[in-house]
Every structure is written in structure tokens, then in C-alpha cells.
Amino acid sequence: MACFLVSAAEAVVVTVVKKAEKKHEEKIIESGAEVTKKNRIPLSRKLSWLTWMLVGGAVLLLFEHVWHGEIVPWFPFLTAMNDPEETTQMLHEMATVGSSMAGLITVIWVGMCLVADRIVNRQEKTSENEA
Questions:
Q1: Which pTM was predicted?
Q2: DSSP secondary structure code for residue 82 in this structure
Q3: How far, in Å, CA of 67 to CA of 75, rounded?
Q4: Whole-angstrom Cα distance, residue 84 to residue 76?
Q5: Contact 11, 106 (CB under 8 A)
Q6: Hey, which residues does 71 pair with through a beta bridge?
Q7: Rounded to the nearest 5°, which phi and psi values hold at 76?
Q8: Secondary-structure breakdown of the chain: helix, strand, coil percentages, each rounded to the nearest 5
Q9: Of residues 15, 5, 30, 29, the one with CA closest to residue 102
Q10: I want to staple 58 with a disulfide (CB 3.0 to 4.6 A). Which of 4, 33, 51, 84 is the partner?
Q11: What is the Cα gyration radius of the chain?
């Protein structure tokens, strides 16, 4: 009913963290501090991947809920908000299904980041061996 709100909320939080991390990375670059690994993927870019994954999932779920008539263009927008019993069911769905979907997306993102780092490290090692 409203499980997409959990992914959307996580996307908002990740966006705020990404902006703070981007500022931190820019400060490091401006200060001239030497980065230990020159060919690495910045955390802000990785957080951007997570944001897009969460937003994409939320938009897809939003469309699905509109398609099934669970979201309407008039107040209160969520049909489950009209009945207290349905509201309880909606909150339970958000807590279980929404949280597990957002968690799964985050776990997949962690795996993506680990694989991307291994690929970058492997490319770095092969370029060092060739030189």
C-alpha cells in the first residue's frame, strides 16, 4: 500500500549524506591532501548509485500502487488512510515489506561496491605490471 515510502525516505537520507560526503571530498581535494589510492571510486559516486536504485524502486512501486488504485489524486492520496484498520495494515506493510525491500536494495548496493572496488584494484594492478 505504501511500502514505496520506505525506499523513498531512505533515498532522501542517502542524498543528504551524499551531498555532505561530496563537500568533504572537495575539501580534501582543495587542501591538497594526497589520496592513498589514486584510482578509486569516490564514496559520493557510490552513494549516487544507491540513491538511483532506491528512487527507481520507489517509482516502480508507486506506479504499481497507482495502477491498482491504492493511490489516488485526491486527499488523503493513500486509500488505506480512509479506514483505521487499513491504516494499521498499511503501517505493518511498510514496516515489514518496505523495510525488507529497502534493506535488500542496500545489500545489493554493498555487493556492487565491493565488486566495483575489486575491478578497479585489478585494473590498477595490471597497469602496474605492464609498466
A1: 0.86
A2: G
A3: 17
A4: 13
A5: no
A6: 78
A7: -95, 20
A8: 80, 0, 20
A9: 5
A10: 4
A11: 20
Give the count of beta carbons closer than 10 Å to the beta carbon of residue 7: 26
Q: For residue 84, say if its preceding peptide bond is cis, omega within 30 degrees of 0.
A: no
CB 119 within 8 A of CB 128: no
The letter for the amino acid at 39 is N
Question: Helices (H) and strands (E) in the chain — how many of each?
Answer: 4, 0
30, burial (CB in 10 Å: exposed 0-12, middle 13-18, buried 19+): exposed
pLDDT digits (tens, 9 = 90+) for 9-65: 999 999 999 999 999 999 988 887 665 556 689 999 999 999 999 999 999 999 999
Cell numbers standing for residue 62: 508507486
Q: What is the grid cell recorded at 58?
A: 520507489
- Mean pLDDT, the chain, rounded, equals 91
Question: Strand pairing partners for 78?
Answer: 71
Distance CA 58, CA 43 (A): 22
What residues have CB less than 8 Å from 83, skipping those under 6 apart? none
CA distances in angstroms from 99 to 38, 69, 82, 87, listed in the order given: 36, 22, 23, 17
Residue 62 burial (CB count, 10 A):
17
